[in-house]
Design a protein that fits this description.
The protein has helices at about 1-20, 35-40, 45-60, 105-140, 145-160, 160-170, 175-190, 190-205, 205-215, 220-225, 230-255, 265-275, 280-310. It is an all-alpha fold. It starts with a helix and ends in a 5-residue tail after the last helix. The mean pLDDT is about 85.
Length: about 325
């Protein structure tokens, strides 16, 4: 009996000691490049500020009626540009004053957001798909295919971006959103193509790609399953920064009279330039909105670049 009691006491002491003893820490799960990037982005004040601005811009784009119920096209000559802004009436049609045709500047700033954001996103998607596909084909196959596609890219790259777009848009009388997106994308895909080509040339020499080839994987599977996911980081960075550039390009074309035919920040800036001495607010507020939008997307691109580039850590 004493031996049984001692054994029971020893077992109880061992159980208590095991509970008191610190448990070994569980090994942390290894994070991918995207996981590390997201962790860095959540701590970046540049990313947080730019994301908040872009969220507000997208909210204005999809729900402009939440911010202004005034028709941006309908004008009242009784409220011409000599009626100055009433900055105390926040959200009212006369908050930012009226233009030379009696249209609310605030309403046109709100509804002009949709045109600029639509052109920016549409052009970015177009150039990313077109440039990414051409760059992947050139970088993966190499040889004659790479030489031909690279020379075609050089030809388009040598054409001035805005000048070529102006020539194309000048041949259209009704310059809708899709026409502007097509013209900007037709001359803007070369940078994405070069970035993708360089990334594919580097990635296709990796061991996992060579192993997939040795196992008999098809070319489309290797390209879209193994190479594409590992070449998206630099493309996303360039596309994000370029989005702001395309918004500024659309405003420049509209300012020159070759952009969108409807409500646009560029059109309002152009119209306001003629009355800058007597009604500066017609040009001022669309210019401020355009600057904030372009800055927000450029800041987002810089934050994404810092998070995805290991050298920036």
């Amino acid at each position: 009996m004493p031996d049984v009691t001692k054994t029971a006491v020893a077992a109880q002491d061992a159980a208590v000691a095991a509970e008191i003893a610190p448990q070994p820490a569980k090994p942390e799960k290894a994070r991918s490049l995207w996981g590390d990037a997201w962790a860095d982005l959540r701590r970046s004040w540049i990313f947080l500020i730019s994301s908040a601005l872009i969220f507000i811009l997208l909210l204005i784009t999809f729900f402009p009626g939440m911010f202004s119920s005034t028709d941006p096209i309908l004008g009242d000559l009784a409220k011409h540009y000599l009626q100055k802004p009433r900055l105390g009436n926040i959200g009212d049609p006369d908050w930012l004053g009226y233009d030379q045709q009696g249209r609310s500047v605030y309403a046109r700033v709100i509804y002009g957001t949709r045109a600029s954001i639509a052109v920016g996103f549409g052009t970015t998607v177009l150039v990313t798909l077109l440039g990414g596909f051409v760059g992947m084909i050139a970088g993966y196959f190499g040889g004659v295919v790479d030489a031909v596609l690279s020379r075609i890219t050089d030809v388009f790259f040598g054409i001035p971006f805005l000048l070529g777009t102006m020539v194309v848009l000048n041949s259209f009388q009704d310059r809708t959103t899709w026409v502007v997106i097509g013209a900007l994308g037709f001359f803007g895909w070369t940078q994405i193509c070069r970035v993708m080509r360089g990334a594919v040339i580097t990635t296709k020499q990796s061991d996992y790609v060579q192993a997939a080839k040795a196992l008999g994987a098809s070319t489309p599977r290797i390209m879209f399953r193994h190479i594409l996911p590992n070449t998206l980081a630099p493309v996303i960075v360039v596309a994000t920064i370029s989005l702001g550039v395309y918004i500024a390009a659309e405003a420049t074309l509209s300012f020159l009279g070759l952009g969108l035919s409807g409500v646009s920040w560029g059109n309002d800036i152009s119209d306001g330039g003629n009355q800058i001495r007597v009604a500066q607010w017609i040009m001022l507020y669309p210019s401020i909105m355009l600057s904030i939008t372009v800055l927000a997307f450029i800041m987002l691109g810089e934050a994404v670049r810092n998070a995805l580039d290991p050298k920036m850590r």
